[in-house]
Amino acid sequence: MVMIAKIITPVAAMAALGLIFGVGLAYALKIFGIEIDPKVFKLLSMLPGSNCGACGKAGCAGFAEALVKGEAIPAGCVVSNEEARRSIAELLGLSHEEKTRTVATVFCNGGSRANDKYTYRGIKSCKAATLLFGGHKACSFGCLGLGDCVDECPFGAIKMGVDGVPVVDAKICTSCGKCVKACPKNLYAVIPEACNYYVKCSSTDAGAATAKVCKSGCIACLRCEKACPVGAVKVESNLSKIDPLKCKNIGKCFEVCPTKVIVKRG
Ligand code: SF4
Ligand code: SF4
Q1: What pTM does this model have?
Q2: C-alpha dist (Å) from residue 160 to 28, 49, 189
Q3: How far apart are CA 198 and CA 194, in angstroms?
Q4: Nearest CA, atom 8, ligand 2
Q5: Per residue in 183-232, pLDDT tens?
Q6: Helices (H), the chain
Q7: Residue 257: CB partners within 8 Å, gap ≥ 6?
Q8: DSSP-assigned letter for residue 112
Q9: Cα 58 from Cα 149, distance rounded (Å)
Q10: CB 216, CB 259: distance < 8 Å
Q11: Which terminus of the chain has a smaller tally of CB atoms within 10 A, N or C?
């Protein structure tokens, strides 16, 4: 009898405590609980669920809440496709504006074509390598090829090319911009995809200095600028740039560039 009492008493005490805490929690939830707008749930089912944070909010749930509060617009989620953005706009009673498709682009063609100024044997990180005299490339603008951008892309859209410079798969890229933030050499930009050509260089050193350290850098010879019939190419501060909004994909700049630093996408 004493034995049974020894077992039943603590079990009953635990059950009583559980009941008290349960009632207390239910009461606290009723008083302090936050009502979740059903629209937030609906929006969550329309968002990609990648929680990449490119919208600047705490994942897709944070973005859905911001949409309902009017603190974000459907185009703020760069990962969503056009159809999803249209449905979100409809649900929120907003007008839908089609977004120009963009793609992350890396502006360096160095890699194995560019000289090293020393042999780097540190940890495999571009950020870490930059701490040692700006990195091991003789070109101070050059890609270090250690793949911080590859590791950071949440969609697996970037691979390291055989020549030691990253390659972005435009079909997979969502323009989330994570690579732009990851690159310590500022070699990425998200640009409209409609223009097929871009200058794969970021060096603003004088042409002779660039040619000395890299076989495929912009040497500011102006041939591309002169060859472009629509004025989309301009050489400024020793670096050629193609305006993707003016580019008509004629490709004359690509044909005349002596260092083959103007490349065709895809
Ligand atoms: S593009 Fe930037 S982050 Fe990517 S490998 Fe080159 S230096 Fe590193
Ligand atoms: S033709 Fe090539 S090397 Fe010459 S300025 Fe244009 S991009 Fe630079």
Answers
A1: 0.75
A2: 53, 27, 17
A3: 11
A4: 218
A5: 999 999 999 999 999 999 999 999 999 999 999 999 999 999 999 999 99
A6: 2-32, 38-46, 59-68, 82-92, 126-130, 148-152, 178-182, 207-213, 223-227, 252-256
A7: 223, 224, 240
A8: G
A9: 21
A10: yes
A11: N
- The Cα 92–Cα 73 span in angstroms is 10
Eight-state DSSP code of residue 87 = H
Listed in sequence order, the residues at least 6 apart from 256 whose beta carbon sits closer than 8 Å to its beta carbon are 223, 224, 227
> What's the pLDDT at 68?
85
What does the block give as tokens for 84? 């999803």
Query: Across-strand partners of 75?
Result: none
Question: Is the beta carbon of 257 within 6 A of some atom in ligand 2?
Answer: yes
Distance 150 CA to ligand 1 centre (A): 8
Q: Is 214 in the pocket of ligand 2 (CB under 6 A)?
A: no
Q: What is the pLDDT of residue 12?
A: 62
pLDDT digits (tens, 9 = 90+) for 10-47: 656 655 655 665 565 456 556 666 667 887 888 888 88
Secondary structure letter of residue 135 according to DSSP? -
Q: For tokens 């050509």, name the residue.
A: 197
